[in-house]
Amino acid sequence: MSDYYRLVVSCPDQVGIVARVSGFIARQGGSITEASQHSDLATGRFFMRYEILADSIGLSAVQLREAFAPIAEEFSMDWALTDTARRPRVVLMVSRESHCLVDLLYRWTAGELDCDIPCVISNHDDMRSLVEWHGIPYYRVPVTPDTKPQAFAEVERLVEQAEADSVVLARYMQILPPALCRRYAGRVINIHHSFLPSFAGAKPYHQAYQRGVKLIGATCHYVTEELDAGPIIEQDIHRVSHCHTADDLVRFGRDVEKAVLARGLRWHLEDRVLIHGNKTVVFA
Fold it and tell me: How far is CA 181 from the centre of its chain?
């Protein structure tokens, strides 16, 4: 497979940005294989994502960043240029529910997720045999009200040791401390059922069943200090009716959760998600 440079840009909108960036790439001999742009008229912000065939440019990623820096400064850009030759490192975290973890591991082994998984961290031992069967190190870090600061200090140490680019909470049922959320802002992805906050707490699908809902769903989002309120990456729904039981809703919900999380992670890994305040622009 070919390697690509991915250029993502966010900056104040003005005339000439596309021409300037495209012209720069053309002067380097670069072949743009995918281009996406969006102008947010409400905020006056411009967003861009380019995929450039790496072999078409006679520069390394480091050299290309250095060459592009003056243009980025000229347009006051928040920007990043990544090289797909380097696979991002993703740490997975899980508690006792297995459906999201199992789905991500399957997609990873099938080559659908272009990343390395250096380890899985859990507050329980339930998933150890599954994870180690995939050849991935598994670390159990128990969390109790009395040991929470020490536990998350160990979690942070393990994430740092793994040199993680991103962390995925694949149904990890503990709240990350604010300091950890700030340190890895825009790099921690969570999945939750879309009932929050209407059906918060234990057994949300059973609460929804009692309420007689007609739609269930799931939300994939970035983690912030405010619980389940970070920028949304992806959402989906499943229709239900009076014919369905509470167990049906749980089953449907699991299907939606794992599909939404997989899509959100894939788009994140492919640099398709640009965060703007508490919203996202997703070039899917």
Answer: 14
Structure tokens at 215: 């739609």
Number of H helices and E strands in the chain, helices first, is 8, 13
Structure tokens at 110: 């099938």
What pairing do the DSSP bridges indicate for beta strands 138-140 and 120-122?
parallel
Distance between CA 222 and CA 171 in Å, rounded? 14
Question: How far separated are the first and last CA of the chain, in Å rounded?
Answer: 21
> 149 and 246 in contact (C-beta within 8 Å)?
no
* Chain segment 143-200, per-residue pLDDT in tens: 999 999 999 999 999 999 999 999 999 999 999 999 999 999 999 999 988 876 678 7
User: Which residues pair with residue 4 across a beta bridge?
Assistant: 53
241 phi, psi to nearest 5 deg: -145, 180
| Token pair 């140490």 in the structure block, residue | 157
Per-position DSSP letters for 210-276, written without gaps between them? HHT-SEEEEEEEE--SSTT-SPEEEEEEEE--TT--HHHHHHHHHHHHHHHHHHHHHHHHTT-EEEE
Give pLDDT tens digits for 1-13.
Answer: 789 999 999 999 9
Q: Which residues are catalytic?
A: 228
At 154, the amino acid letter reads E
Peptide bond into 137 cis (omega under 30): no
* Residue 72 CA to its chain's centroid (Å): 25
Q: pTM to 2 decimals? A: 0.95
Q: Which two tokens stand for residue 254?
A: 């699991």
